[in-house]
Structure formats: structure tokens, C-alpha cells
Amino acid sequence: MTAIDAQIDMDTSLVDVIGKKSADLLAAQLEIATVGDLVRHYPRRYVDRGKLTDIAGLELGEHATVVAEVEQATLRPMRSRRGNLLAVVIRDDRGGRLDCTFFNGHRLKNLIVPGTRALFAGKVGTFNKKLQLTHPQFEPLDDEESIRPFISVYPATGKLSSWIIARCVRQVLDVLDDPTDPLPETLRRREGLAELGRALRRIHVPETEADIHAAKHRLVWDEALGVQLALALRRQATVSRPAPACPPVPGGLLDAFDAMLPFTLTDGQRAVGAEVSADLSRDHPMNRLVQGDVGAGKTIVALRAMLQVVDGGQQAAMLAPTEVLAAQHARSLRTMLGGLGRAGELGAAELATKVTLLTGSLGAKARRAALLEAQSGEAGIVVGTHALIQDHVGFADLGLVVVDEQHRFGVEQRDALRGRGERAPHMLVMTATPIPRTVAMTVYGDLEVSTLSELPRGRSPVATTVVPLAEKPQWFERVWRRVREEVAAGHQAYVVFPRVGGGDKAADLDPDADLVDLDTPDEGADAEEAGRRAPLAVLDIAPKLTEGALEGLRLGILHGKLPPDEKDAVMRAFEAAELDVLLATTVIEVGVDVPNATAMVILDADRFGLSQLHQLRGRVGRGSAPGVCLLVTDVPEGTTTRERLDAVASTTDGFELSRIDLELRREGDVLGALQSGRRSGLRLLSLLRHEDVIRKAQVYATDIVGHDPGLVEHPGLAALVGETVGDEERAAYLDKV
Ligand code: ADP
Ligand code: MG
User: Fold this and answer.
1) Which atom number of ligand 1 is nearest to the Cα of residue 298?
2) 495 Cβ partners below 8 Å, 6+ apart?
């Protein structure tokens, strides 16, 4: 087949357009196989010819990019080593001359010959008192490109240079018919977006700076809309399933509970509670995310939802990420419910239900009993870890799943929890890691979002300080003195370690603490081999503290490798103030609630993610006494890692932190969680920079899917979804409609 007589579109194989040699190179180096792959391989940057420096104006030490022609090129043996230098003189259009020296002379001598026009970029140095570029970056320009106002610079590899890519792109654009634009014309007109064909041409071959902006803006829209359509389809697929309607029952368990609440709900708790209550009353599943900073009082919101569901004759399951947290949730739910949670026991209220804990640590007999309570419907509320409930439990009538501490949980896992049956339970997801709006609209885009923005009254401030051992080693002593002061004042303290330790490296990661977490730095026991000191381990340091700095205090040790009943016993002892200091790993990160704990020391704080630190800090300042949080690190000043710690110290506003987090973290990690395909369809979209587009795209997507649930009238948009989030995801929501 030749390119001339065949229709060339985005799916055409490149071999048919640019020949086998170039096509093979693109396939091998960049996995670019089709015309579409290539035209979606956008320039990384542009060199504006109008802004290029003349050679005559170059200054020593500056980083310069010049377009010039090779005037002379001479191969010379190097003085001190084997091999040859290529000594080159280049000349720009204004007649300025400059020396350039290239190593690997032999390899370059056929590429850099007199008459070659090219882009040379590098730092201006001197040799023999003359300015020169030493081994500059070098991109040959063909005649056409060298007269264009902008030179497009592509993501390239050692074996495939930018200019070859540019040439292939131009060859393709020359013969490509403009693709059918997937965006509805009304949308395009209202948002002032360029047509797809034009945008694709302009992003590769711009005439003006405005061309570049307009092209990018249009292509960003494609990506944002692709993502939002995928999410709208997801929402649609979930909410169209039937769910048990549980309208409030006057005089029921929830009313009884509200009547005995020892405090008044915050306005936020009341408002979110009303939203949740309305959702639960419908016969389609609720899918709601409640976000509220650490200590905002999310548990009550969840409990009230669970009681409404129990009033409706259904069961509720509450899932926690760790056994420690599940056990603690069960305990605090029972405490809050009092007689209302002791069905079957002596002195229970008539309306009472039963809270059943289901974790891996239960003995066989207790476990059978718990499973039976869930299956028979005797347990109105079942609390457990994600894994356990997902795998083994049959419920009589599961009406609501509450997922606590969502930041460890992905979109797929949420889908799994909704079950495969026709009927879906309502779902309430709670996160203490506030999410910037754009992230909420993407990663959590399958959920409606409610926010608890105020903390209950009577919370105490937490003062956070970075303890920089690199600059102030003597402060280490003060850390322990501070802990002793808190204990002497009748309070308790946490000391957190990044690692469990105790020898065996392979088994060193904390099985409980190391759940999938978007922002846990990927450093375990291997750090030592990588040249960095291994992170401090609780089992290694605890004996030293016991005999040294914390001698005489009652210390407990908590980590994920302890047998579960021991974990529980330690946690109970700490809650009962039988321990002064808890030496722990991040198992205490989420949800643990001991108001008397006022001090938190985080050792090797640099090893933790930003939101993890915020979570950890949230364990103190939960009572009436002010809290203190000390972030101990030996990472020196002036590094991004220290910036991260300073950010945590500078604000206790979780929203502000999540924004900083997003800035410091690679966005790809966030968006990556959305994609299942081989190749990322998201090249330009930024959660930071494109909030406005993402917000509008969400509105359009919801509207389009509302009118055309299978996207049958919008085949171009259906294809866009596949391009953006991968064909598997597309198939999951489109092909079954
Ligand atoms: P989080 O949102 O971090 O899960 P919790 O639900 O654990 O917070 O609540 C933290 C503490 O605040 C608990 O001890 C809880 O009983 C208490 N609390 C919750 N709501 C209120 C309120 N409206 N007034 C006073 N205290 C409250
Ligand atoms: Mg909580």
C-alpha cells in the first residue's frame, strides 16, 4: 500500500507513511506506531527564533542557544586521552563566529560538516581567551525548519533526535486529512476552542506564540473532557443500580442516639448529615466522599448514617485500613452507642443493635461467631479491615459500606466493594487528607464530595517544629527533655519511626503501615545499600531509649508485625494511660484517638510523605491541652525534602498542605492512578494549572452522559475516552451499555 492512494487517518500505521526505517526507529525508541501516536507526541518546548542570541552578543557563563551554520570542522587528536576532538567554527546570519568543541569527534564528523545548519545550545566558556561552547547540544535543522519562526524541540532519545522526529511529524502532517473533531461544535464555539486538526498542526508547527497557546488550550480540553467523561460514565454506571432506600425512621435508633449525644453537632456535621440522610433515602446508591481534617468529627457523621440504615432494616459495614484502627473504631462506636449498641445483652435498650468486630486476629471460634452475626443480620454494624470484609463476609442485608481514611484506597477498590450483584450498597467514604478540588474532581470523580470545614470547639493548637540535626545536633537532647516534660505534666507522647527493624531486612517493612499510599516515599530497608543510612527502626532504638533518654517512663511498642492481640493490648494500655510513651510505626497514623496525648516526635521525618506527617500530627491536640509536634531530621537545609517539612511546620491547614503536596509531588502519580492503558493519554493536563478547564469539562461531561449514556450519538467522544484513560476503562463503561 502506498500513502498516496490510501486514506490516511490517525490509525494508519506509520510504516505506510514515512517508510520502514523511520517507523522502526520511532517504534523501538518511543513506542510510536501510528499516525495518531506521532501527532500526539507534542514538542517539549519551542525555540523562538526571534529570541535567539546573536553570537556577537554572547557573554561568558550564560546558557546560550544559537542557530548557525558550520563553517569549518576539523578532527584533532586529543592531547591527554585517546580519541579525537572535532573543532568546529560556526557562523550565524549576522556573521558572528564562535568556536565549538565536540568530543567523540569520529562519531560526529559525518554529521557536523561545513554547510550544516543547526541549533547549538550550551554554556558559554573560554579557551585560549576566546569564547567557545564545549560539547554543546546540537540539533541539525533542515532547510524548512531553519527558516521557521519557532523550532519545535521534541522529547527524544540518544538514538532518535528531535530533528528526525520533527521531520517525520511534518511528513505526516503533509498528507494527513484533518481528523473528525470529537468535540461537539457548540462546546467548541462556546469555549472558543480551535478545531482539532488545526490545533494538532499548530502545536507542531506554530507561526506565533498565540498559536502555541491556542493549540495547547484546545488539546488540554480533550484530555480534561476525556477524563471527566470516563468519570461521568463511572458515576452513571454506579448510580443506575438499585439500592435499598433507607429514609429516616421517626423514633428509631438514630433519633434515640441524637437525643443522648453529649455535645451539639457542628454546623458542618449537621449539613453533611442532611446530605447523607437524603442520599440514603433514595433507591439508588449514595456515593459520597466526606472530607474533613483530622479531628473534624467524621466518625459521628458515619455512625449517624449507619444508624439510619439500621433503622431501615439493613446492615452497615465500616472498613478501616488497619486492625488497630478497626478495633479502635469498634470500641469507640460501642462507647458512643452505650446501651443502644448492646443488643442481646442485659440492660440493653429496646431498639439496640449490635456492633461486631471482625479482624484476622480473632480466634477461630470468635471469628465464626462474628461471621454468623454478620450473616444472620444480628449485627447491625460490622467493623473490620478492608481485606477481611471484602473476602469472606456474607451479610444478610448490607445497605451501607463506610470506608474510613480513603487516601489509601483506589477507584478500583471502591468498585470491588460495591459488589458484583445487581443491587449495590450505599457508600460513604471518609478522608482526613483534604484534597484540592481538581484532585477531588479526577481521582475521586466517581464520588460526590461533602466537606466538614470546621473543627469542633475546644480543640487545641499543635505547635510544629522542625528539629534540624544537620545544623543543630544538640537539639536532639531537648527533644527527649520535652517528652519528659509532657509526661511530668500528666500527658502522654508518641514517638514515631519509619521502620520496624529487628534484624531480618526482607521482613522489615511494616505490614500494617505499608498499605498502598500515594505518597509514601518508596524507601525501605534497601536504603542502606543505596548509600543512604537506613531509616530508624523502632525495635533498634527502643532499647536505647529505655535505658537512656526516656529511662523510668512507661514505654509501649506498637508496630504492624506484632501479633494482633498484642497490638490491641498495647493500644488499650495507652488509651487507659497505663503507658506514658508509645514508640510506634505509622500504624498510629490514622484515626487513633487518645485526647491525653499531647506530644508527637517523628524521627527521620524526611522519610514520610507530607500528608502522612499531617495525619500523624493529628494524633495530638485532640484534648484541651495544647499539642507539640517535633519533626526530627538530619536532611540539610536547602533541599526539597526540608521544604516539605517546613511546609508541615508552617501550617496546620490540611487544604493548604494538600496544595503544597500536589506542587511538590509528581502529578503523574496522581493522574496515573486513573489510567489502565499501556500509554498515558494525558500529556498536557495539569491538576494545578488547569483547574478551570477541569471544572468546566466536568459540567459538560455530566450533561453529555446524562443525555447520551452510551455515547452512541458521540462516537468521537467515546474514542476520546479510550485515548485518555485506556481502552479497558472505556470498555468497562461503554461496551456494556
Ligand atoms: P476524625 O474526623 O479525625 O475522624 P473523630 O470523628 O475521631 O475525628 O472525632 C474526634 C473527636 O472529636 C472524638 O473524640 C469525637 O467524639 C469528638 N467530636 C466529634 N464531634 C464533636 C462535636 N460536635 N463536638 C465536640 N466533640 C466532637
Ligand atoms: Mg477518623
Assistant:
1) 2
2) 483, 545, 581, 582, 583, 584, 600, 601, 603
**592 alpha carbon – ligand 2 mean position (Å):** 7
Pocket test for ligand 1, best of 257, 258, 261, 263 (most atoms within 8 A of CB): 263
Q: Whose CA is nearest to atom 26 of ligand 1?
A: 456
Alpha carbon distance 26, 28 (integer Å):
6
Q: Give the global pTM.
A: 0.69
Cα 47 to Cα 424: distance, rounded to the nearest angstrom: 55
- Which range, of 6-10, 203-207, 676-680, averages the lowest pLDDT? 676-680
Domains belonging to the chain, first-starting first, are 253-452 (3.40.50.300), 462-651 (3.40.50.300)
* 438 vs 530, residue with greater confidence: 438
Calculate the average pLDDT of the chain: 84
CB atoms within 10 A of CB 197: 16
Q: Measured from the CB, is residue 269 less than 6 Å from ligand 1?
A: yes
More confident residue, 726 or 125: 125
Ligand 2 centroid to residue 629 C-alpha, Å: 19
Q: Helix 610-617 vs helix 640-650: angle between axes, to the nearest 10 degrees?
A: 30
Q: Is the CB of 181 under 6 A from ligand 1?
A: no
**In percent, how much of the chain has pLDDT > 70?**
86
Kindly state the average pLDDT of the residues 563-580. Answer: 91
Residue 145 cell numbers, joined = 525548519
